[in-house]
Amino acid sequence: MSFKTWKDRMFAKLFTRFPVFVSRWAKSQNFVVNLKTPWTPLSKDPKECRIALVTTAGVHLRSQTPFDMEDKEGDPTFRVIPSQTPPEDLTITHNYYDHLDADQDINVVLPLQSLDELEAEGLVGGTAPRHFSFMGHIAGRQIETLVNQTGPEVARMLKEEGADAVFLTPA
Amino acid sequence: MGLIQRAIEAEGIPTISISLNRTITEKVKPPRALLVDFPLGHPMGNPFEKQLQRQILMEALKHLIKITEPGTIVDLTGAFRIEGEKCMLCTVEVG
Fold first, then answer.
1. CB distance from A152 to chain B under 8 Å?
2. The complex's ipTM?
3. Residue B62 falls within a domain, yes or no?
4. B95 in any annotated domain
5. How many domains are there within chain B?
6. Can you give the residue ranges of every domain in chain A?
7. Which residues of A touch B62 (CB under 8 A)?
8. pLDDT along chain B (95 residues), means of 10
């Protein structure tokens, strides 16, 4: 393990155990500030909607290339998670939060099981064939890549697969 | 995450997200968010709390329709109770 990895994990643990650090960090960071937001009203009952999940918790298939943890500005790429993926085929690469709990139960960051249940009970119209996962620690030049390239690319892929609504979970 | 959410909404798909921190969410301003008071890395709560995970997802689906003001953050902090050893979401309908 490199020092950077060790340090990132240590901070991740601190942030998880002491939320005050998260607030302090959040106030110190130059987050993108938006005054307006895009808006698309939901046009049908959720019981008829095909739902897709998007997470920024660094989830990926064990067979996929892990997210890049060396670039200080983060990895703006994404991984496609087929909706029927068994939990044991999933893993997490993300050194900026403590994912011991999510490692035990991936549904802590990506509620695949709950969504399947709601679909089986007819409370949602269906599950989209693909969900999408990012690694949420994005800064500097990588923000531009996310906003101009990979974010819109995933949006188009969600449109193509007929997702009617998307539920997003951070880390 | 809010930036990705905004890109999806701009493509014409309604979105709702979990927020773990109001300061960040207010700055990035996604279309719809549910604020929970869980630690980082736990947007759906503790591991193996199936009922809670399901409640949060249901709550999100409900607010996909209910929220009419772009940029709304629904505050669910304080809406969670420990029953036995399980955490449960107890929302009170207002209005």
1. yes
2. 0.95
3. yes
4. no
5. 1
6. 47-169
7. 46
8. 96 98 94 93 93 96 96 93 84 56
